[in-house]
Automatic annotation (TrEMBL):
Residue stretches making up the HTH araC/xylS-type domain: 191-289
Pfam families: AraC_binding, HTH_18
Lineage, broadest ranks: Bacteria, Pseudomonadati, Bacteroidota, Chitinophagia, Chitinophagales
Gene3D superfamilies per the UniProt record, alphabetical: Homeodomain-like
Recorded superkingdom: Bacteria
Gene Ontology MF term list: DNA-binding transcription factor activity; sequence-specific DNA binding
Native species: Chitinophaga agri
Name of the protein in question: Helix-turn-helix domain-containing protein
SUPFAM superfamilies: Homeodomain-like, Regulatory protein AraC
Annotated keywords: DNA-binding, Transcription, Transcription regulation
Length: 292
């Protein structure tokens, strides 16, 4: 795979700035590679996950005070909130995919299943071993995502989401099969929380509801969830509700009142206030944005 971009020497790219918003869901993909030496630098806080895979060569990824070596035999996963600087050599090529929690929810279809496999332990970052045979289809999908990301074709958003779902399933399955990940550090309680969230977010909207079902205190559940995925229990619940609301706005003709009812709000005005609080946009403005 020799598709490369040429950058000026020591060009710095801020990976915290997403160049493209998929209907208000944060996603970006950058290509690593070119005839010139490159630096990918992130100097600001980001709430995005990052997956780095190389198709040729090797590089170091500085994450806070840690230095993570990445080569074609490993795929790196970096949890949200990490300061990250990727320094490839002249012969390195590959991709960096950056995506928000809500984009993962929208594209994955079953985030309660995928999330525990994407970050099975409490580490802020880790690498997943990958064989050349296993890397090939993942790299091909990453290339297709990159091409769609930079295209102006119809249905670009849908293509990116569909390709990303396959991509993240491949990565998550590799993580599941990896012997290098200590799954003992991933509390079964966290996996049960995400599974319960997926099935009950329309009826259970408070952290205490989930804590009661799991027979723990809300504070203990929040500590484990935050250590596992970087977000609080409340944030996970709120984002799951918001993502479903956005999905219904994007793909149905349901009214505000009907959507509110679907996701467990008896009062449409309460849902409207909730949506504005956690998206920063009014329901009507988001509806118009989707229509446009």
């Amino acid at each position: 795979m020799n598709r490369r971009q040429t950058f000026a020497t020591d060009l710095t790219i801020d990976l915290a700035i997403d160049k493209y918003q998929l209907k208000d869901f944060s996603f970006a993909v950058d290509e690593i590679g070119g005839e010139e030496h490159q630096h990918f630098d992130r100097t600001a806080h980001s709430n995005n996950y990052k997956v780095i895979l190389l198709t040729q060569g090797a590089c170091y990824c500085d994450i806070g005070s840690d230095s993570l070596k990445i080569d074609t035999g490993h795929i790196a996963v970096i949890r949200p909130g990490q300061f990250c600087r990727v320094v490839p050599d002249e012969m390195t090529s590959g991709f960096v995919l950056s995506f928000s929690y809500d984009f993962l929810q929208l594209a994955a279809g079953a985030p309660g299943i995928i999330l525990p496999h994407l970050h099975p332990g409490f580490n802020e970052h880790y690498t997943i071993p990958v064989t050349p045979a296993a890397l090939l289809p993942i790299a091909e999908i990453a290339l297709q995502i990159w091409e769609e990301y930079h295209s102006c074709s119809d249905l670009r958003d849908e293509m990116i989401r569909s390709l990303f779902r396959i991509f993240i399933l491949y990565v998550s399955r590799l993580n599941t099969d990896s012997n290098d990940i200590n799954y003992g550090k991933c509390s079964p309680l966290v996996r049960r929380f995400f599974s319960l969230l997926e099935h009950s977010f329309t009826t259970m909207k408070m952290p205490a509801d989930y804590a009661d079902m799991l027979a723990v205190t809300p504070a203990y559940l929040n500590e484990l969830v935050k250590r596992s995925c970087g977000f609080t229990t409340s944030y996970c619940i709120q984002q799951r509700i918001v993502t479903e609301a956005k999905r219904l706005i994007m793909y149905t003709e349901l009214s505000l009142k009907e959507i509110a009812y679907r996701i467990g709000f008896e009062d449409a005005s309460h849902f409207s206030k909730f949506f504005k609080k956690f998206t920063g946009k009014r329901y009507s403005d988001f509806r118009r944005q989707v229509a446009a």
